[in-house]
Amino acid sequence: MAKVAFLLAPLAVVLVGLLPAVPAQAQANRTFVSAAGNDSNNCATVSTPCRHLANAYAATAANGEIDVLDPANYGALTITGPVSIEGHGWASIAAVSGGAAITINANTGDKINIIGVVLDGIAIANTTGISFNSGGSLTVRDSVVRNFGYDGIDFYPTASGTFFISNTLLSDNGGTGIAVTSTGSGTTNGVLNHVDMVNNEDGIIVQSTTQTVNVTISDSVSANNTAAGIGAESDSGMMVSVMVRNSTSANNGTDGLYASGTGATLLVTRSTITGNITGWSAPTGIVSSYGDNNIDGNGGANTEPPNPLTYK
């Protein structure tokens, strides 16, 4: 018997070596999360959803989609590749202390889409709603970002990038509603459409140290912020251009509009600037009007900015 066992053992080793490796579980193009989900599920069907976004993201293929099935808090998430999150208006995500509800550390060219989510910082200090550090583009639509100790959305690209924010509320954040701070090389382009920035420290500040930045703000409101409504800031002479169209900057604690630094330009058309401590200011930058705005009722600077523009 001992001799037989000795002969069978090498044969078993050979047979095991000939067997194909068992493949790892494939990632799904579409995954699901639910309040009744379980993170041990595969997340790949509505009947086997995960409980948290982080687990569903790990099970989602690149360029895939995560769908939220019902209202719940789905936990903080770090994104490292292209994905779409469909919150359907009831996905709640809260930040961890000192962190962000959603952190984006993606690769150049990766597209991140966040739709229909409610991000609530519950006033925890040093928290941020969305922190975009790297990636190709960020789209935020039909969402709410509120009550964070720091900023609502930080868009801090280190290379060329784009962002599009629409039908979204940023409110009651301890810092800036939307902070755009570009570093590295390249160009950043952004568009805000139907975005409300209220009761923050600043509404939106667009700043650059080494990149060219172009941002268009359309049909939006920046109001009741303790500091500025809309600002453009240029460091080291980099071109920062902000176009404000058909929008309102009202009842802010300092400037309704401002441009600071050589290279910073803020253009305004068909907009209302009212109730601010100062209507507009351009200590070292340029604020220019197309002459069709309502600039009145501010503590100062109720006149049209210099360098009036004409439509082409």
Topology at a glance:
Blueprint: H1 2-18, E1 28-33, H2 53-58, E2 60-68, E3 72-73, E4 77-79, E5 83-93, E6 100-105, E7 111-120, E8 128-134, E9 137-141, E10 144-146, E11 153-155, E12 161-171, E13 176-182, E14 187-198, E15 202-208, E16 212-218, E17 221-223, E18 230-234, E19 240-245, E20 248-250, E21 255-260, E22 264-269, E23 272-274, E24 278-281, E25 286-289, E26 294-295
Parallel strand pairs: 1-2, 2-5, 3-5, 4-6, 5-7, 6-8, 7-9, 7-10, 8-11, 9-12, 10-12, 11-13, 12-14, 13-15, 14-16, 14-17, 15-18, 16-19, 17-20, 18-21, 19-22, 20-23, 21-24, 22-25, 23-26
Task: Give structural notes.
By secondary structure, the chain is mainly beta. It has two helices and 26 strands. It has helices at 2-18, 53-58, and strands spanning 28-33, 60-68, 72-73, 77-79, 83-93, 100-105, 111-120, 128-134, 137-141, 144-146, 153-155, 161-171, 176-182, 187-198, 202-208, 212-218, 221-223, 230-234, 240-245, 248-250, 255-260, 264-269, 272-274, 278-281, 286-289, 294-295. The strands form two sheets. The protein has a 17-stranded parallel β-sheet that branches. The protein has a nine-stranded parallel β-sheet with strand order 4-6-8-11-13-15-18-21-24. α2 links the parallel β1 (28-33) and β2 (60-68). The protein is elongated and about 60 Å long.
